[in-house]
Amino acid sequence: MKVIVTGGAGFIGANLCRMLSVEPAVETVVVIDDLSTGRRENLEGLDRIELVVGSILDSDLLGKQFDGADAVIHLAARPSVPRSLADPMATHAVNATGTMNVLEAARGSGGPQVIVASSSSVYGANPALPKREDMATLPVSPYAASKLATEAYALSYRRSFNLPVVAFRFFNVFGPLQPADHAYAAVVPSFVSWALRGEPLQIHGDGLQTRDFTYVGNVAEVLAECVRRGISNAEPINLAFGSRVSLLAVVELLEKILGVELPRQHVAPRPGDVRDSQADQTAFRHIFSDVEVVNLEEGLRATVDWFRTTQLTL
Hints:
Number of helices: 10
Helix content: 25-40%
Strand order of the largest sheet: 3-2-1-4-5-6-11
Strand content: 15-25%
Number of strands: 13
Shape: globular
Number of domains: 2
Structural class: alpha/beta
Order of helices and strands: EHEEHEHHEHEEHEEEHEEHEHH
CATH class of the largest domain: Alpha Beta
Largest sheet: 7 strands, parallel
CATH architecture of the largest domain: 3-Layer(aba) Sandwich
CATH superfamily of the largest domain: NAD(P)-binding Rossmann-like Domain
């Protein structure tokens, strides 16, 4: 089996490639990554992994690399709500137009399974909890809108061209390999990095906003199983496990893990951020009934251990 992973040198992609590299049914994994946020070193030492440095905006490159592919896992994206507010057009180009390029390349190469990464941010201003896939989507940032376009285009190709597609809505994925060395870093790596450096943890707003944090190992496991089973689905699927934890609770868990009290600095709320997030996992569990969840504390311990080992801190 030949598997394509766009964005495979990034945080989620590299964790997935580690799993695919030991999957018996997978002969070759072709990673397409422009290395704008991914790192070559994330893939070092992995068997059966071929890195092709290039962009999903390059249709010719995609057409060439997709030839003979059995599955495409499309993770390449321009992440971050604040980044999308700073440059909405760049976010649209990569996340929406880039996805169209991936889908067209897949269609032109015989119709391999295509798995795309959407986001819980598509629920946006809809206040209802937990978030069900049949709820109204109300994006409040260009990033969220671009991810809604990602899943909508993918699912339309399933209906229009019989392309076997799955669209997962990721919820605040965290874990090893997630960088904290840039201005748009996610909250967990930022917190861990500041904590290990003894610096105040910057908390936007009151810190009582809640998220459904999902350990990257669980995400990689689900994506690999999806390839293994050749799954396709007509509707988007939440990929999260129904937890709802405040940012202050995350800080308290880090204090428990590190055995120290962590200084905090509250700063202004960020435009485009949603207040609360929690996944309904009914649809997910209907398809993936046997996934054992890595809980938040266990995942944070693994993340802290990785940061200590690599010293990738701000």
